[in-house]
C-alpha cells in the first residue's frame, strides 16, 4: 500500500521551502517528492493530511546506552519520592505488578530529597521485596543498596556495609546486569525503542558490553535487530577485538575510557583543575591505545573511544592521525564526547579526520559562565568546551548524541541545545544542528546513501514536528513550554513508530 503525506513543509537539506508539498511512499521508500502540491490524485494511496506540519529527516542519535536506559525505564523511578514510605510504596507496587522474577531495579533515589535524609534500610527493603533481588541505585549511579535476596547472590563479592559505594557498587550493578534473562534484555531494548521514537528518533547508535572484555548480549541483540521499531546501530563496547570480529561487528568501542569525567575530576587535562593540583587521569598508556586502535584499524573496524579532557582527546587523536598518514582508510573513527579542545587541538582533529561525536545536552546542563564546567575548570577553559561551531567552521564533520541514559533521549531538546550553546561562538545554525542528527549521523555509520535525508529513493525515515526548530521558538531548551516544537509523528520505512495523541 502506498502512503501519501500531504500538506506539509518538507526539509530540503538546508531549510524549509515557502510552500507546502507532498511525499509519496511505497515499500518503505520515498518514491516521489512533489515540488508543489498537485491537485490530481491518480493513485490509490493512504492519504495522511499533515495540516502544515514540518517534515524533517528521521533523526538519528549517534551515542546512547540504550540497554541501561530501557532497563531502568522498566524498573522503578524513585525521583518523585519524598519519604522512605513513598520510595518503599513505589517499589512495592512495582513488585506486585510485574510477573518477572528477575532482579528489580529501582533508581533515581536522592536521599537528600527524602524527609528522613537517608536510604531505606535493608530491613525495610526485605519487607516489601522478600524473595526477589532488589537493587536501589542512587541518582548519580555511584552508590546503591540491595536487599537480602540480592546480597545472598552477591555473596562475598561485596562488603557487609548497607550502602555500597565505589567498587562494591560497580560489582553489584554489573553482577545483576549480567544475570538478566534474554527475555528482559529484549524487553529493555523494546522500551528504549519506544522512548526513542517518542523523542523523535528513527535510529539510535547503542553501546553493548561492559567497556572491559565482554561484548555482553551483542549476539542476542544482533539476531533480533529486525524486531525493533527504531534502527539500532550496534557497538561492541569492549576491548575484546576478537570477540567483536567473531560477532561480525563493523565497529568497536563506545564509552571505552581514555579518561573519566569532569564531575569526578578524572577527565585528563593538560592543565590542573581549578583550585587543585590534579590533572585528571589517563586510564591507559599510549602504547595500549596504539596497539588496540591499530589492530582494529587493520581489521577495517571503525573505532570509538570516550575522551573528555584535552589530554585524553589528544592521546586518541594522535593515533588516529598517525593511522591516517600511514594506513589511510575511510573508517570514520570517533572521538566520543570530545569536550575540551583549544584551537591547536581543534586543528589537529581537523587533520586526523576523526569524527567528534558530541552531546549538545552537556552544554545545556553544565555549560555557561555560571555552570558546573566553569566551576571545575574556570571561565576561560569552560568556554572552550563542546565547540560545535568551531568544529563546523573548520570543516570537521561532527555527529550528535545524547549519551542517554545520562541525558534525555529527545531530538527537539538536543537540536535546540546545539543552536543555543551558552557560548554564542559555538552555536550551530538550524541547518547545521539538524545535520548533526541527520546527514552527519547517517554518514557516521556509512548509511548516508539510504537514510538521513528526505530524498527520492531513500528510506522513508521521517520526523514530523508541529513547527520548525528555529532558535527563537523557545526560551530555554530545558524547560519546554507551549512554544516548544513537538514531535507529531516518527516514521521509519513508512511505518508510524510514534504518533502524538489528539
Ligand atoms: Zn562516555
Ligand atoms: Zn557514553
Task: Describe it.
- With 502 residues, the protein is an alpha/beta fold.
- It has 3 domains: 1-57 and 452-502, Urease, subunit C, domain 1; 64-178, Diaminopimelate Epimerase, Chain A, domain 1 (Roll), CATH 3.10.310.70; 250-428, TIM Barrel.
- The chain has 18 helices and 20 strands.
- It has helices spanning 66-74, 84-97, 122-128, 148-154, 166-178, 182-198, 218-223, 241-246, 286-298, 310-326, 343-352, 360-366, 372-377, 379-382, 388-393, 411-419, 430-436, 439-444, and strands spanning 2-10, 21-26, 29-34, 45-57, 59-64, 76-77, 104-109, 134-138, 143-146, 163-165, 201-208, 231-236, 251-257, 302-307, 334-337, 355-358, 399-400, 462-465, 487-492, 495-499.
- Strand 13, helix 9 and strand 14 form a beta-alpha-beta unit.
- Helix 1 packs across helix 6 (182-198), helix 10 runs parallel beside helix 11 (343-352) and helix 16 (411-419) packs across helix 17.
- It is globular and about 70 Å long.
- One zinc ion binds at residues 63, 65, 255, 403.
- Residues 255, 306, 336-337 line the site of one zinc ion (ZN).
Q: What is shown here, in short?
A:
The chain is an alpha/beta fold. It has 3 domains: 1-57 and 452-502, Urease, subunit C, domain 1 (Roll); 64-178, Diaminopimelate Epimerase, Chain A, domain 1 (Roll); 250-428, Metal-dependent hydrolases (TIM Barrel). 33% of the residues lie in helices and 22% in strands.
Amino acid at each position: 500500500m502506498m502512503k501519501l503525506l500531504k500538506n506539509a513543509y518538507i526539509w530540503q537539506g538546508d531549510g524549509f521551502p515557502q510552500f507546502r508539498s507532498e511525499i509519496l511512499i511505497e515499500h518503505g521508500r520515498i518514491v516521489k517528492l512533489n515540488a508543489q502540491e498537485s491537485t490530481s490524485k491518480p493513485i490509490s494511496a493512504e492519504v495522511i493530511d499533515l495540516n502544515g506540519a514540518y517534515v524533517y529527516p528521521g533523526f538519528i542519535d549517534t551515542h546512547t546506552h540504550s540497554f541501561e536506559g530501557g532497563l531502568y525505564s522498566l524498573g522503578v523511578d524513585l525521583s518523585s519520592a519524598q519519604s522512605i514510605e513513598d520510595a518503599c510504596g513505589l517499589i512495592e507496587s512495582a513488585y506486585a505488578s510485574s510477573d518477572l522474577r528477575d532482579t528489580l531495579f529501582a533508581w533515581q533515589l536522592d536521599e537528600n530529597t527524602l524527609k528522613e535524609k537517608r536510604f531505606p534500610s535493608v530491613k525495610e527493603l526485605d519487607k516489601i521485596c522478600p524473595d526477589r533481588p532488589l537493587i536501589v541505585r542512587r541518582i548519580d549511579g555511584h552508590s546503591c543498596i540491595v536487599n537480602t535476596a540480592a546480597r545472598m547472590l552477591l555473596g562475598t563479592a561485596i562488603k557487609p556495609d548497607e550502602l555500597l559505594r565505589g567498587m562494591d557498587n560497580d560489582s553489584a550493578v554489573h553482577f545483576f546486569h549480567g544475570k538478566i534473562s534474554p527475555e528482559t534484555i529484549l524487553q529493555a531494548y523494546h522500551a528504549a525503542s519506544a522512548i526513542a521514537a517518542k523523542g523523535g528518533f528513527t535510529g539510535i547508535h547503542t553501546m553493548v558490553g561492559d567497556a572491559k572484555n565482554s561484548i555482553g548480549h551483542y549476539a542476542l541483540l544482533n539476531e533480533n535487530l529486525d524486531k525493533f521499531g527504531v534502527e539500532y546501530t550496534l557497538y561492541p563496547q569492549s576491548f575484546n577485538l576478537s570477540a567483536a570480529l567473531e560477532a561480525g561487528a563493523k565497529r568497536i568501542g563506545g564509552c571505552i575510557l581514555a579518561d573519566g569525567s569532569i564531575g569526578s575530576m578524572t577527565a585528563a587535562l593538560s592543565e590542573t583543575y581549578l583550585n587543585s593540583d590534579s590533572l585528571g587521569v589517563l586510564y591507559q598508556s599510549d602504547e595500549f591505545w596504539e596497539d588496540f586502535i591499530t589492530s582494529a584499524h587493520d581489521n577495517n573496524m571503525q573505532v570509538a573511544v570516550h575522551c573528555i579532557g584535552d589530554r585524553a582527546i589528544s592521546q586518541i587523536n594522535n593515533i588516529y592521525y598517525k593511522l591516517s598518514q600511514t594506513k589511510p582508510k575511510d573508517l570514520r573513527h570517533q572521538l566520543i564526547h570530545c569536550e575540551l579542545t583549544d584551537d591547536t587541538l581543534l586543528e589537529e582533529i581537523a587533520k586526523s579526520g576523526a569524527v567528534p561525536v558530541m552531546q549538545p545536552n552537556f552544554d545545556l546542563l553544565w555549560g555557561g559562565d555560571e555552570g558546573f564546567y566553569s566551576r571545575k575548570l574556570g571561565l576561560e577553559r569552560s568556554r572552550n568546551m563542546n565547540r560545535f561551531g568551531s568544529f563546523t567552521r573548520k570543516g570537521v564533520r561532527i555527529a550528535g548524541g545524547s549519551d542517554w541514559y545520562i541525558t534525555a533521549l529527545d531530538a527537539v531538546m538536543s537540536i535546540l541545545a546545539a543552536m543555543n550553546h551558552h557560548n554564542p561562538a559555538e552555536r550551530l545554525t538550524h541547518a547545521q544542528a539538524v545535520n548533526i542528527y541527520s546527514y552527519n549521523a547517517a554518514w557516521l555509520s556509512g548509511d548516508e546513501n539510504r537514510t538521513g535525508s528526505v530524498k527520492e529513493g531513500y528510506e522513508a525515515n521521517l520526523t514530523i514536528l508541529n513547527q520548525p526548530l528555529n532558535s527563537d521558538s523557545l526560551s530555554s531548551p530545558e524547560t519546554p513550554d507551549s512554544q516548544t516544537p513537538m514531535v507529531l509523528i516518527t516514521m521509519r520505512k513508512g511505518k508510524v513508530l510514534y504518533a502524538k495523541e489528539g
